[in-house]
From TrEMBL:
Gene3D superfamilies associated with the record: Ribonuclease Z/Hydroxyacylglutathione hydrolase-like (3.60.15.10)
UniProt keywords, alphabetically: Exonuclease, Hydrolase, Ligase, Nuclease
Source superkingdom: Bacteria
Native source organism of the sequence: Sphingomonas tagetis
Protein name according to UniProt: Ligase-associated DNA damage response exonuclease
Xref: InterPro entries: MBL (IPR050698), Metallo-B-lactamas (IPR001279), RibonucZ/Hydroxyglut_hydro (IPR036866), Xnuc_lig_assoc (IPR026360)
SUPFAM superfamilies in the record: Metallo-hydrolase/oxidoreductase
Entry EC number(s): 3.1.-.-
GO molecular function terms attached to this record: exonuclease activity; ligase activity; RNA endonuclease activity
Record domain Metallo-beta-lactamase: where: 9-173
Length: 332
């Protein structure tokens, strides 16, 4: 008797679909790659063909140069060999998708990275009933229960108001997190100019080109200290404590990441204001998603697989961990 999902072959460098002659999120160059989203641990350069949403292809071109791209819109189904592939929103970042694979009466959903919280910068996650659900587990431990987004943005604004002679410098991942922080601030009525590190400019421009209104953004480099007092400045996490940040007016150092739940991580980065703001599902959202989709089998990857596999088995849900190489924390 054939094993459920045996037409998918997990390898350290990605998931191979022989019947489609394709790979999902391969970490090495392949002739045909189906890419869930634009983060570098999922989207690599050098593939022969890239099948992805138009937004993900645009992100890959911005990062790696021209791609041999095959754009697939949300809800569109393409035939690859004997397999039907449909891209549906994952709610992670702009253009992020789950890839729904149908083959000989079985359905497997490769979710990529996803979250369930509302995000004004991307389409929301859509649950898809399936036989096998392949889930991430970046925050796959019960300790990770993210607070409300508005509470974290309130903390940021309160810090700014409390010390108007300083600035608040927020470390945020260049793709997805930086743009989300900006949009969340705008949604809370913050209309002042927001200053950004030059490394964020290209992807912020790309978001604007795809219809995400970020309001007035100004470059932070070359601006007098006095002008930056009482301002919010965004930079990549690596710039929080480097020479670039030393020219700012006594910055309140903040970091927007799901990892800010872990105090040791905040201390390691000298973060004064931890902002728990994640683009991944937390423990409750992971388990709720599994209950909602109710797959016959769960495959777990990218994170804390053991705890989620154990949770499933306690509830008589068949589950196993996939050992895929090359996935990073992304400074979530």
């Amino acid at each position: 008797m054939a094993r459920l999902g045996d037409w998918l072959q997990p390898h350290p460098e990605g998931i191979h679909i022989p019947a489609a002659d394709a790979w999902v999120d391969p970490s090495q160059p392949k002739a045909r790659a189906l890419v869930t989203h634009g983060h570098a641990d999922h989207a690599r350069g050098g593939h022969g063909e890239v099948w992805a949403t138009p937004e993900t292809l645009a992100i890959m071109e911005a990062r790696y140069g021209p791609q041999t791209g095959r754009p697939v819109a949300y809800g569109e189904t393409v035939r690859l060999g004997e397999v039907d592939a449909t891209f549906v929103p994952a709610g992670h970042v702009l253009g992020s998708a789950q890839i729904v694979l149908d083959f000989r009466g079985e359905r497997i959903v490769v979710s990529g990275d996803y979250k369930r919280r509302p995000d004004p910068t991307c389409a929301p996650f859509e649950p898809v009933p399936c036989d096998v659900f392949i889930t991430e587990a970046t925050f796959g431990l019960p300790v990770f229960r993210h607070p409300e987004t508005t509470d974290e943005i309130d903390k940021l604004l309160a810090a700014l108001r409390a010390e108007p002679d300083r600035c608040v410098l927020v470390g945020a991942y260049a793709l997805g997190k930086a743009q989300r922080v900006i949009r969340e601030l705008r949604g809370m009525g913050f209309d002042d100019p927001i200053y950004i590190h030059g490394a964020l400019q290209r992807l912020c421009d790309l978001y604007v080109e795809h219809g995400v209104d970020l309001g007035e953004l100004r470059p932070a480099t070359g601006v007098a200290k006095k002008e930056l007092q009482g301002r919010i400045i965004l930079c990549p996490p690596g710039a929080l404590n480097d020479r670039w940040s030393r020219r700012l007016p006594d910055p309140i150092t903040a970091m927007a990441s799901g990892w800010m739940t872990v105090r040791q991580r905040a201390r390691q980065r000298n973060v004064e204001l931890p902002l728990i703001l994640s683009d991944h599902a937390d423990w409750d959202e992971l388990t709720r998603t599994i209950r909602e989709i109710a797959p016959r089998e769960l495959w777990v990857t990218h994170g804390r697989e053991d705890a989620l596999v154990h949770w499933c088995r306690e509830r008589q849900i068949k589950a196993r961990a996939l050992e895929l190489a090359g996935y990073d924390d992304e400074d979530d």
